[in-house]
Amino acid sequence: MKIVVTGAAGFLGKRLIRALLERGSMTDSAGERRPIEHIAAFDVVPLEGIDDARVQVSTGDLADPAHLERLVDAGTHSVFHLAAVVSGQAEQDFDLGMRVNFDATRALLERLRALGQRAKFVMTSSVAVFGGALPACVDDSQVWAPQSSYGTEKALADLLLADYSRRGFVDGRSLRMPTIVVRPGKPNRAASSFASGIIREPLNGEPAVCPVDPRTVLWLMSPLRAIDNLIHGHELPAAQLSAGRVINMPGLSITVADMVASLRRIAGDEVAARIAFTPDPAIERIVNSWPGNFSARYARSLGFVHDDGFDSVIRAFIADASTVAA
Amino acid sequence: MKIVVTGAAGFLGKRLIRALLERGSMTDSAGERRPIEHIAAFDVVPLEGIDDARVQVSTGDLADPAHLERLVDAGTHSVFHLAAVVSGQAEQDFDLGMRVNFDATRALLERLRALGQRAKFVMTSSVAVFGGALPACVDDSQVWAPQSSYGTEKALADLLLADYSRRGFVDGRSLRMPTIVVRPGKPNRAASSFASGIIREPLNGEPAVCPVDPRTVLWLMSPLRAIDNLIHGHELPAAQLSAGRVINMPGLSITVADMVASLRRIAGDEVAARIAFTPDPAIERIVNSWPGNFSARYARSLGFVHDDGFDSVIRAFIADASTVAA
Predict the structure, then answer these.
(1) Which chain A residue shows the shortest CA-CA distance from B149?
(2) Touching check for A243 and chain B: CB below 8 Å?
(3) Rounded distance, CA A250 to CA A122, Å?
(4) Do B152 and A160 make contact, defined as CB atoms within 8 angstroms?
(5) How many angstroms separate the CA atoms of A128 and B159, rounded?
(6) Residue of chain B with shortest Cα separation from A163
(7) Which residue of B has its CA nearest to A93?
(8) In chain B, pLDDT over 90 holds for what percent of residues?
(9) How far apart are alpha carbons B264 and B273 in whole angstroms?
(10) Cβ-proximal residues to A166 (8 Å cutoff; 6+ apart), any chain
(11) In this complex, which of B132, B143, B160 lies closest to A142 when CB atoms are compared?
């Protein structure tokens, strides 16, 4: 089978491709287990660091129909669509965010519809679709009320994926991801970038700025669990998706203060002292509009997993950093 | 001020234009009351039957940028966007529904954004955005889960309107309308068409088919209250819209059996006997996915109105039919 991965050069994309190569086979939409013969790894920058004959790297513009036709073809059984403009950037550049986060997703869905093979389409959505007056623990029946263009674009894509699946154009699954922590590499323009930065930078001997109040409650998932869930979300039979194709993932609800306490426990006072708390109202406004806890009842019933505690998340990051290039 | 009305030749469009002409003035987004100098009445078929120098009739394609530029110009203070492909047709022709119900709405919002005047933008949405497992009475916090492409397209437009408003591109208000009953004229391809047909046709001496079970609960609003609410929705100051721009309207929750009983009370047994109950599974599937009752708490707090009972809805239809061309 051929699997397309967009956002392949990102830290999740790269880890997903490694996990797929290691598994060696996946289940198609007819429920048949097939060997993975090709992985088309697409991103705006070329994927590097994976040397496997099954992986074809390409770059380009997803909204360009000619490129899309080459990338997604009649042999494509599955697409993992991870490519996105992050929240801070989508807020700054509305047109770019709409084009990448919505129009490109629509173009991908249209391409799969035209091919007529009901391919599996696994996408990452975001808790940024929620906002406004929210209960302490958000249930699966909670209305979407995005307070950012990123959240709006993810909600638009979710609706489209659900209708394309209902009509049988694709076999879609959208996973509403918590904030993924600890991301490796450099800070990015996501409003949530600090959530990884306050762990990663101090561990690397560098200073970090926390732009939100330590009492801020975050909803987190580690990269390891994210990959587990992406693969699980792909493998679930369509018949089990009784409550729809858009699934709020389980996660870890934790305050920033408890994250720092965890870092202090594992790495010591000197490391934790590298975090400076300097409020940034623009980031606080976006981050505080995101819920800090979810019931994720539907996802749990489907067997999606979450991290047991933040200490193990930090330990996994340290272990990962020592074995994987960022 | 100039007001653009799309879907102007429809029964709501026509009644809205008459109501606007009668009022003579409306409030712009700065809160200033202005005389209505121009109403640009757009539809795919020309508006007929309104003879007033303030009304300019045009036809064309809303998704065509050249047409849109002529229709919506720097003098446009407000747009009432009522044009839509109805639910049954949008389900049959996915591309047409997306183009009219979503792409044309987006093009309109983009045009207003480009003009940079934060024009008022009042749109009709639909209870078809809801579906799946629902409580007996749907609250404003209920998640959207459309079970039709029409519902999906209306939810997409709602999300866009909300973000364009949040960013200050437009001053938008989307009114989630109940099924409008009694519509004058002929049956259309809306799945809800029968809800008017079972009252209208018997009163006109014609047979009617009811494709759903008499126990089906519908959520209704009369054309009179719909016009009241469209104008109220336009006039509300933006500062009052504390819980967002997408508003579930209040309505009348009633079973089909009670609608028929009301018709019998007002028009007699002979008239009510003109209704034949012949189930249509395709229509039942769509109609049964729509909730039959809403709290509409937010809308009520904002002063939106609903019908007091179905007898008065029928009486208003009879009075309207004798004074207004369909």
Answers:
(1) A163
(2) yes
(3) 17
(4) yes
(5) 13
(6) B149
(7) B167
(8) 89
(9) 9
(10) A245, B147
(11) B143
The C-alpha angle A247, A245, B145, rounded to 5 degrees, equals 90
Asked whether this complex has an ipTM greater than 0.90, the answer is yes
Q: Which two tokens stand for residue A120?
A: 């599996």
CB under 8 Å to B178, separation ≥6 — which residues? B127, B218, B219, B220, B221, B249, B251, B252, B294
Q: Say if the Cβ atoms of A159 and B159 lie within 8 Å.
A: yes
Contact A156 B156 (CB under 8 A): yes
B325 pLDDT higher than 80: no
What B13-16 contacts at long range (C-beta under 8 Å, 24+ apart), as own/partner pairs, is B13/B41, B13/B43, B13/B47, B13/B80, B13/B82, B14/B47, B14/B49, B14/B50, B15/B223, B15/B227, B15/B324, B16/B80, B16/B82, B16/B227, B16/B230, B16/B231
- Predicted confidence (pLDDT) per residue in B160-179, tens digit: 999 999 999 999 999 999 99
Mind listing the pLDDT tens digit for each residue in B199-232?
A: 999 999 999 999 999 999 999 999 999 999 999 9
Q: Output the six-digit token pair for B305.
A: 């109105």
Phi, psi of B145 (to 5 degrees): -150, 70
**CB neighbours (10 Å) of residue A135?**
11
Q: Could you tell me how many helices (H) and strands (E) chain A has, helices first?
A: 13, 14
Type of residue found at A97: G
Whether the CB of B93 is below 8 Å from some CB of chain A: the reply is no
Partners of residue A132 in chain B, C-beta under 8 Å = 243-244
Which chain B residue shows the shortest CA-CA distance from A246?
Answer: B145
Please indicate whether, in this complex, the C-beta atoms of B159 and A163 are within 8 angstroms of each other.
no
Backbone angles phi, psi at A247, to 5 degrees: -125, 120
CA distance A78 to A47: 19
Inter-chain residue contact A144 with B143, CB threshold 8 Å: yes
Q: What are the distances in angstroms from CA B25 to CA A30, B5, B39, B166, B234?
A: 61, 15, 11, 26, 12
Which structure tokens are listed for B252?
A: 């009348």
Structure token digits, residue A22: 């290691």
On whether any CB of chain B is under 8 Å from the CB of A143, the answer is yes
Strand (E) positions, chain A? Answer: 2-6, 25-27, 33-35, 38-43, 55-59, 76-81, 120-126, 171-177, 179-180, 208-210, 217-221, 246-248, 252-255, 275-277
User: Choosing from B121, B130, B144, B150, which is the catalytic residue?
Assistant: B150
Contact A143 B143 (CB under 8 A): yes
Domain ranges of chain A: 2-178+222-250+293-306
Per-residue tokens: B322:
């004798």
Q: Considering chain B, what is the average pLDDT of its residues?
A: 95
Q: In CATH, which of 2.60.40.420, 3.40.50.300, 3.40.50.720, 2.170.130.30 is domain B2-177+221-250+294-306?
A: 3.40.50.720
What are the angstrom distances between the C-alpha of B318 and each of B53, B202, B257, B323? 30, 12, 20, 9
Which of A91, A134, A159, A294 best probes binding to B when mutated, by most B CB atoms within 10 angstroms? A159
Q: Which amino acid is at B162?
A: A
Helix axes A310-323, A193-203, angle to 10 degrees: 60
DSSP class of A41: E
Quick one: DSSP state of residue A144?
P
Tell me which chain B residues have a C-beta less than 8 angstroms from the C-beta of A144.
143-144, 159
pLDDT at A216: 95
Q: Which CATH superfamily is domain A2-178+222-250+293-306 in?
A: NAD(P)-binding Rossmann-like Domain (3.40.50.720)
Residue A206: count other Cβ atoms within 10 Å of its Cβ: 10
Residue A53 near chain B (CB below 8 Å): no
Which amino acid is residue B158, in one-letter code? D
